[in-house]
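Appendix B. Chain record.
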Amino acid sequence: MEEIMQNTGVEEEAKEDSTKDLFKEAVEEQLKKIRNQSMIIGFKTALQVVLEKILAVKGKPGKTTLRDYERLMKDIEQFCITGLEQKNDEEETDSPDETNSETVQN
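Structure tokens predicted for this chain:
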């Protein structure tokens, strides 16, 4: 009788572990989907900004000069540089050196 109870306990633990694993996998999959959607939205937003800058130059009345195109290129270049200089949350994780420097020294 004891063996049956022990086996039941082992089976219950295995079920709990598999349920936890399934839940963890489902959460990770949803997080990946959300991250991908966020990246697509950000990419589309950046493309929309660049397109608006180009259309603003092209839509100007009169002739578009070389100087206008140079300003456009400089504006797009600055936009790209600013976007690339921003750090995301994953890049800002604490390194072990930073956490050790915050500890109190005796």
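Further analysis of this model is presented in Appendix C.
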